[in-house]
Design brief:
CATH architecture of the largest domain: 3-Layer(aba) Sandwich
Shape: globular
CATH class of the largest domain: Alpha Beta
Number of domains: 2
Strand order of the largest sheet: 2-9-8-7-6-3-4-5
Largest sheet: 8 strands, mixed
Structural class: alpha/beta
CATH topology of the largest domain: Aspartate Aminotransferase, domain 2
Number of helices: 13
Helix content: 40-55%
Number of strands: 13
């Protein structure tokens, strides 16, 4: 049934049927969680051979005792791993602790408090702002919110962020000092930036504030579900456009090995790395080199890493298939929502009818299925259309995910029908 063409009586009957089904579901007292993109236990088990892999040999190549202090920029072997993931030279990589989010936070603080490469610190500007492609990653937005950095939403399309708007805002406002990007399998839409989008992003340094930086969060660089999806090199594009200082790239093994005990990487120009190191040497005497050595021996070469990620894909793909099958079977012939079909990453982005997302999340929660809060994928937690919901299939077992998606589809139908009934009542 198409909701727009349904009569009031048809909607009322449909609402009655859906409500009855919903109340039966509530009686089961479910407790299911599809809120965040955490690896499942089965995925984490793939890396359990990290435990004991050093066999009491803590010496890195060159003789460094990894148990001791020092090595601010990380082991060379770990930096080589990061270079393989980001497709950049090893000398342009710092290997750090387990979290790329920590590195991003540190980088934003560096720009805010001290400035990059001798440029004006962002805090000295009247109203520094980041451009934020939406829907996007809530933790990016939290960093800006905590520091009082303004956020300007940029809608995403199937090529990446709307570059006409990006360029327009940057030309009009010299206090735009950054843009968040998840360029491959964007969180949550799953979109991979087109070659043209990467090229236009690389050119922004020619028109932006000299302190402007692209935060290139390549969190899903190796997270293909099936065939490999290529992403144009932002580094190569900046070299061609003489804008190498405008980009900071990030990646980690947090969804590759053990999520809470991985290795994170930042890659940038020598001027940017120098700015980061100046602050790092005050706050740390070096990263966890023992863990970096473990990863270097576990992933002996990039082909080893790619084979490991195929094992992840074998676990994840049935879960993504489950989500997409429920959405297709339950909603494809109805005008109740739209969704992406990602080829990798960790999320499925779903858009309800305008004004329904919060109602869907609330209904699901009351039925025992936890979803990411509506609005979380927008700056300040405010989705102007109240429509986007991020679905995270990775963590629950397939059977639980199957149940959760059945409930989700039911809640989408119920919220949509109730909204339309209310609209028709008000219209008389």
């Amino acid at each position: 049934m198409q909701i727009e063409s349904a009569s009031f009586d048809q909607l009322a009957e449909w609402e009655k049927e859906l409500s009855s089904h919903y109340e039966r579901i509530r009686q089961h007292e479910l407790n299911l969680d599809i809120t965040r993109g955490k690896p499942s236990t089965e995925q984490l088990n793939l890396s359990d051979k990290l435990d004991g892999i050093l066999c009491n040999d803590y010496r890195a190549a060159g003789g460094t005792d990894t148990r001791n202090y020092g090595g601010l920029i990380g082991l060379t072997s770990a930096r080589e791993l990061g270079a393989d993931m980001l497709q950049v030279p090893t000398e342009e990589v710092i290997a750090a602790g387990n979290s790329s989010l920590t590195l991003m936070y540190h980088a934003v603080l560096t720009g805010y408090l001290f400035g990059f490469a001798g440029n004006t610190p962002w805090r000295e500007l009247k109203a520094p702002k980041f451009l934020c492609p939406v829907p996007g990653y809530d933790r990016h937005f939290s960093i800006c919110a905590q520091l009082g950095i303004g956020m300007v939403s940029i809608p995403m399309n199937d090529q990446g962020p709307n570059m006409d708007l990006v360029e327009k805002y940057i030309r009009e406002d010299n206090e735009i000092i950054g843009i968040w990007c998840v360029p491959k399998y964007s969180n949550p839409s799953g979109i991979t930036y087109s070659d043209e989008t990467v090229e236009r992003l690389a050119q922004l340094g020619q028109i932006a504030n000299p302190g402007f930086r692209i935060f290139w969060d390549n969190a899903y660089a190796v997270h293909d579900l099936g065939h490999y999806v290529s992403l144009a090199s932002i580094r190569a594009a900046t070299l061609e456009n003489d804008t190498v200082d405008s980009v900071l790239q990030f990646a980690s093994t947090s969804k590759v090995s053990h999520a809470g005990a991985g290795v994170a990487f930042v890659s940038a120009s020598s001027a940017n790395l120098q700015s980061l190191q100046q602050q790092m040497q005050t706050m740390t005497i070096g990263p966890d080199k023992v863990n970096q050595l473990r990863h270097s021996r576990f992933f002996t070469e990039f082909t080893t890493l790619k084979e490991h990620m195929r094992k992840h894909a074998n676990i994840l793909k049935p879960k993504f298939d489950c989500v997409l099958e429920h959405l297709h079977n339950g909603l494809a012939e109805m005008d109740l929502g739209q969704w992406e079909k990602p080829q990798g990453g960790y999320f499925v982005s779903f858009n309800t009818r305008k004004g329904c997302a919060k109602a869907v999340v609330k209904l699901a929660a009351e039925a025992g299925v936890k979803l990411t809060p509506a609005g979380a994928t927008f700056p300040y937690g405010k989705d102007p259309e109240d429509s986007n919901i991020r679905i995270a299939p990775s963590f629950p077992p397939l059977e639980e995910l199957d149940t959760a998606m059945s409930v989700f589809v039911l809640c989408v139908k119920l919220a949509s029908v109730r909204q339309k009934l209310e609209q028709q009542r008000k219209a008389g």
